[in-house]
Design brief:
Layout lengths: L1 E12 L2 H6 L3 H21 L3 E6 L2 E6 L2 H17 L4 E13 L2 E3 L1 H12 L5 E4 H6 L5 E9 L8 E9 L20 H20 L5 H4 L2 H20 L4
Parallel strand pairs: 4-6
Antiparallel strand pairs: 1-3, 1-4, 2-3, 4-5, 6-8, 7-8
């Protein structure tokens, strides 16, 4: 087990659970892909490490509190262009890293801060405000708040906006996925989308001599996906 000082972000899409409960399986999968396509380019740009997703909420860790808040501003802006609202809570502190997950009071506080947010709102703790580059964003003091499970009040700040233009993160995802007819092709399409996302995340960090093996790895992933899709359809002996 290791301990590190990280900025922890909880970013949730407003109304996700309600919409999910009223959707078919296909519609819920489309919504999940839309959410990932909305969020993933922003996380990559600001060097956020996605820890896990809980329903419609992403838990993300950042080395830099400034990058965490700028990422929140970019998510807020990007979601707004699709007429969607996000709630984002950020807190900074020492967390424990165990098998790819994070634990500790900063995680609990960030989750409680996210729960305080209204639609489209970004809130962060005083530890973030004191540690970040305050020339990058404008924020207002929202006062001290009592948070469930936290013994002392936490001073909260509300993000007003970035003081510099945010980077261009490319085209927004389409609310409609490409139509893929047939169960087999749908399984292969979904496997290809997963492989592409993994490649996009991994390639920039790999040494040049390792990249030559990536193509073979992706091909193997698709072959496995095809095998299981065929097995599910009963097409294998």
């Amino acid at each position: 087990m290791r301990s590190r000082n990280l900025a922890i972000v909880f970013a949730g899409l407003c109304g996700y659970a309600e919409r999910l409960g009223a959707q078919t399986w296909e519609e819920s999968q489309r919504m999940l892909r839309l959410h990932e396509a909305l969020v993933d380019p922003v996380l990559r740009k600001f060097k956020g490490r996605r820890i896990k997703q809980i329903a419609g909420t992403f838990l993300v860790a950042f080395e830099s509190p400034t990058q965490a808040v700028l990422c929140a501003a970019a998510l807020q802006q990007r979601a707004g262009r699709l007429e969607l609202d996000v709630r984002i809570g950020v807190h900074l502190g020492e967390v424990r890293l165990v098998r790819g997950d994070v634990f500790g009071e900063p995680v609990n506080i960030a989750a409680r801060i996210e729960a305080l947010c209204g639609p489209g709102e970004v809130l962060f703790g005083e530890s973030v405000w004191l540690s970040m580059n305050r020339a990058e964003v404008r924020a207002e003091d929202a006062g001290e708040k009592r948070l469930k499970g936290v013994p002392e009040p936490v001073r909260i700040f509300r993000l007003v906006g970035a003081l510099k233009p945010l980077p261009d993160l490319g085209p927004l995802p389409s609310p409609e996925r490409p139509e893929v007819h047939g169960e087999l092709r749908r399984h292969l399409f979904d496997a290809a989308q997963v492989a592409m996302r993994k490649a996009e995340d991994a390639l920039p960090r790999l040494p040049d001599r390792v990249r030559v093996f990536v193509g073979a790895g992706l091909a193997a992933m698709l072959a496995v996906a095809a095998f299981f899709a065929l097995a599910r359809l009963g097409a294998l002996p």
